[in-house]
Amino acid sequence: MRVLFAGGGTGGHLFPALAIAEEIMALEKESRIEFVGTRYGIEYRMRNKLGYPLTLIAMRGLARTISLSLVMFPIRLLVAVIQSVRICSRFKPDVVVGTGGYVAGPVIIAAALKKIPRALQEQNSYPGLVTRKLASKTNVVFTAYRKAEEYLPANITHRRLGNPIRRSLTYGNREAALEKFGLKKDRTTILVLGGSQGARRINEAVLASLDSLDDTMQLLWQCGKRDYTEVAARADKKDFVVSLFPFSDEMDLVYAAADVAVARAGALTIAELTACGIPAVLVPYPHATADHQTHNASEVVAAGAAEIIPDAELDNIRLLDRAVQIIRSGRLPSMREAARRLGRPQAAADIAREIIQLAHTKGETSGTGHQSRTD
Questions:
Q1: Do 104 and 174 belong together in one domain?
Q2: Can you name the residues that pair with 143 across neighbouring β-strands?
Q3: How confident is the model at residue 238 (pLDDT cuts 50, 70, 90)?
Q4: Which of 70, 73, 253, 254 has the fewest CB atoms found within 10 Å of its own CB?
Q5: Alpha-carbon gap, residue 268 to 288, rounded angstroms
Q6: In this predicted structure, what is the pLDDT of residue 225?
Q7: Would you say residue 367 lies in a domain?
Q8: Do the domain assignments include residue 375?
Q9: Does pTM top 0.85 for this prediction?
Q10: Cα–Cα distance between 340 and 277 in angstroms, integer?
């Protein structure tokens, strides 16, 4: 079986594809998998670590303002579609899977032209441009949020199976994690996440509220490469246990050490936190398209697994106070259970099985069908 993945630009699009690919290889060990990306995305920077061949196409995102780049977009898209058709002709995939980002668009279009079965996986509560425009050209759209389905055409097939994450993220050993990060066993660990680049607003708000902690608590803080030196200098002056790291390839250990998290509300972050059963204080990124991070967070709050703080309020509150209040209120166990109920660590495997089934379909596929939901 041959599977062609197209998704990237950011880790939020690439990592779900890698999680699905891992499960496909576990189920169909003789499968061949290739990725399509661009030289501008994280997939190119990680090309030596992907574990799969990567072919590049000349695609760029759609500019949001009047510019030469916007004028050139139709030509760039046409070139990328032609390149994608050639890739499909060479690799002869049994199924094409798009996981978002502008690179997925031309590859899904090429698969439709060549009548290859195709699927999209949408991570967010507000679907990205590729999903909104091309959902009707696919055989199935995999969603994680009920809200996302409101933006999809009425006559398409969709499956709500959750966001795919690597199962290994849930297997971290807490004792090994605490030792690795120099944390104490008898303290409650607050994990601060700002994404691979860090989140300056969250970093500043945490620095301003470090004295909210008492001697029963400690911080495990992913502050990003950009802010690491400054944060390290300022946090070092505080008399608390604070373990800093700019970025980690061992997120299973990061999550194993955490009792509660403070984080942005990206779809992948939420999927990982809930799968690991970690309650959270979520601060949605205010400039996300259609404010989708607030919609993402709202579903977690409604389930009882998180609290939400608007980014605009960070200047007027002490951010760590909210995490401390959760700890002192005794709500951690109930929020942990709520997170586990919401989490779907099996999502990647469920999606992989559906993709394998789609790959084994023969003949022309229309890309439309009945509505279907899986809760």
A1: no
A2: 160
A3: low
A4: 70
A5: 14
A6: 85
A7: no
A8: no
A9: yes
A10: 5
